[in-house]
Amino acid sequence: MPAFFKKKTWRAFAYHWAMLFLAPFGFTYAILTISLGASLLVTVIGLSVAAAMLMGARSWGRLQRALTGSLLDRHVDAPPRLVRRPGFMGFIRSGLGDASGWRALAHMLAGFATTLVASLLSITFLVAGLGCLTYWYWVQWLPLMQAKDGSWHRGTSIGSDIYAEGPTWNLVYAAVGVLFTFLLWPAINNGLASLQGSLASGLLGPTEAQLRVKSLEERRSHTVQDADARLAQIEHDLHDGTQAQLVAIAMKLGDARDRLAGEDIPENIKALLAGAQGTATDALNDLRGLASGIRPAVINDGLDTALESLVAAAPMPVSLTYSLASRPSPAIEAIAYFCAAELLNNAAKHSSGTRVTLKVATAGHGKQLVLSVLDDGVGGVDPAAGSGIEGLRARAANVDGTLEISSPRGGPTEITLRLPLS
To answer: Which residues are the signal sequence here (predicted)?
Structure first.
């Protein structure tokens, strides 16, 4: 089937028309961003406006990727999502440092020029081809023109005193129309659309560096998940294997003591049995504490249940508020639980307070878990003083989480943990 009749060709033509409509808006947005940013650069307001407009340029990228995918059948991967830093200055740094926003801005400028060329060439070749094909019909409405010899002609003028009229010229125009319409136009139309798609892929997709970072993040995520799964398996094996065996040993030793209680045996043998039973009981208690430290089995019932158990065993009054709509991934639950346990333990040991408030909620459009521990103590927490804060911060960083501390002298102290839900 000739390319003229294929859907691909006409979708590419529709893409040219869509870009011809959208490109002026993108070009205007890019010029405004540059001019406003340059004119107000010396002020904080100018920086914030430029940052906001660069973030907004990402919407152009989403629109262009959707157009490229639906009309050109060319999938363009989205760049990594923008991670906004907290605070006003963090907002400015995030916007101005957003490489994807700058690349979208570059696409607005470059795309304007390529769209004008591509759209006008495609439309011109199609209109010229169809015009030549139908020349035999519409030539009758052309105005009469007088040659130098005084004769009158109805047809297009080709050179000096040469007029395209009559059956021969109609056939010539028809042949040119076939060449333009069915051969040249599809090739030019599709080729220029492919060029536009390449421009979108090059500027609106992820860079090689971003792809490498994404790959590293995925591998790290799998490593964290695998580690959590292994810890859960170890806890399960200790609970159902070694712990059960120690329970059986302690019970058998107790049964032996009971049976030999009335027998005439040396006291050192009885003391040996009592000591063995006590050692088995101590080992069982140590093993339970070890298994709980690896990964408490209560986490399997959900983070809410695990935190309720933690709060109930806390050495000081703790108020718990839990408002997660969905359950986090197992690795995130484990990190949140251990951080909460460490923070509650620190509050009990160092805050000199009387009450702690533990809150768990979502943020970031429901994609982030926020756990905060607030005590009414004396404040002045120093992360470098061996309180374990830096270890918690490193654990959160393993999954792109953060740990923020607000602890002025005199209190109160609030420590906020932010983790992705998955």
So the answer is: none
